[in-house]
Amino acid sequence: METTDTHRILVVDDERDIRDGCDRILSRSGHTVVTASRGEEALEILERESFSVVLLDLKMPGLDGMKVLNLIKQFWPDILVIVITGYATIETAIEAMKRGAYDFIPKPFKPDQLRIVVGRAIERKRLTEEKERLSQERERTLQDLDTEKSRTRTIIHALPDGVVVTRTDGVVALMNPAFMKMLCLDNDARPGAPIKAYVKDEGLASLVMKASTGQLPAGHSSLSHEFPLENGKYALAHATPVLSETGECLGAVTVLVDITELKSEFVSHVSHELRSPLSTINQQLAMILSNLVGDVPDEQRHVLSRAKEKTQALITLIGDLLDLSRIESGLVLKEIQPVDIAQVLKGVVDFLSSKARGKEQTLSLSLPDSGLPPVVADPIALESVFNNLVTNAINYTDVGGRIEVSAGLDGEYVRVAVKDNGFGIEERHLKRIFERFYRVKDDKTRHISGTGLGLSIVKGILDALGGKVSVESAPGKGSTFTVFLPAGAPRPEETTAGSSAVPSDPQ
């Protein structure tokens, strides 16, 4: 589950593309990013400003990353350092972690990889700070609270979960702000009415009444009920009778917990438990391959290379499955806001330029001089759409090929086309390429690794935004994927996913 807390992050790397890419990706997640091109400059910045996380390149001219790491751990021990390294310096990265670095990320890395590693560091930082805060609170007293009643009321009002206290007749005696917010009650709502006056869900009202009168099944100390909230989320209610010293029921306490993101939390746990060890194996295989010397049989080298490719494919598969899970859970669109699509496209093209140059390809972006209207979307989800499409174009275009990204207006829609002169797709495949796990495999594409989930992720996000994607392709001539997004559209939650009147047959 992503955090919305803002953190200050220092990026230290002598490659401008890496600095600018990290700045775009992390700033879009709400963080404040400062960059430095040399170790000496980074130390000067650290003396003036405070940071939660430092992304530190190990190989830099002048003061190298290892020396900077040592100084950071000496003078700013609370900062979490993530080292940036290439495969050739994997041993140095491991040494850096022994010296106190929190984690490392290899070049080249994808936006999602960077967000996961930084997010993990920020969560570690948050847990550390929370532990210190709780320790300090335990040392405090409640001397400022005059009576037991005010003490209990203050605690209940501070709880993040919804709490309602009822008498034996079902009349509400106390409810906290979280309860009112979850049930969308007016701010001026006050206790004193029967529970049914506040709760529309009949199952929840019945649950509270049974607990308030002590009507629990034999062997049960509480009752539970799951129900939908008005804002499209889900809550789980636990109702527990309050008993006197003699065992008499005095009423009930009911706690409401938002469980909408439980699935997302489970997915995040899977991501940590599976992706991290696979990444470690992948890096160790890379280190072995880079250090192979002497007369090593080609067969052994091939086996190691294939093992590395397969672990990387598993890492990619896990990431794609997590994206699909978030789409199905309705969690893919978190920060809905007006988005400058031109800036998103510039960021994607800039970030993937090095990948295209690695295949001696030309990657270009064409935008109208008159500008483009904003689209209402989640910028991270929108970036994922175009990152997938441009990455596919690079992967499925031969060395020396050409990829053109263009944008313009088509009536009330913003149109973005990703065109390449690559391998192309036979017509019989075009109707299925947006299906999960469907991949076109022939002599030219068989060697390209992938999960077959990228285009289904693209379609899922666009459906949630009320947009559409189409494709034109021919073998040997390349492909053109065209995305249509409503300009200035209402928020996706106000529409039915995929029901917007986008052009029925865009060309």
Explain what this protein looks like in three dimensions.
This protein is an alpha/beta fold and 507 residues long. It has four domains: 1-140, 3-Layer(aba) Sandwich (Rossmann fold), CATH 3.40.50.2300; 148-258, Beta-Lactamase (2-Layer Sandwich), CATH 3.30.450.20; 262-327; 332-494, Histidine kinase-like ATPase, C-terminal domain (Heat Shock Protein 90), CATH 3.30.565. It contains 14 helices and 17 strands. The protein has helices at residues 16-28, 39-48, 65-75, 90-98, 111-139, 148-158, 177-182, 202-212, 262-290, 298-328, 341-358, 379-395, 427-430, 454-464; strands spanning 8-12, 32-36, 53-57, 80-85, 103-106, 162-166, 172-175, 223-228, 234-243, 249-258, 337-339, 362-366, 375-377, 402-410, 413-420, 468-474, 478-486. The strands form four sheets. A five-stranded parallel sheet has the order 2-1-3-4-5, sandwiched between helices. It has a five-stranded antiparallel sheet with strand order 7-6-10-9-8, with helices on both faces. A five-stranded mixed sheet has the order 12-14-15-17-16, covered by helices on one side. Helix 1 packs antiparallel against helix 11 (341-358) and helix 10 (298-328) runs parallel beside helix 14. Mean pLDDT is 80; it is low at 141-146 and 489-507.
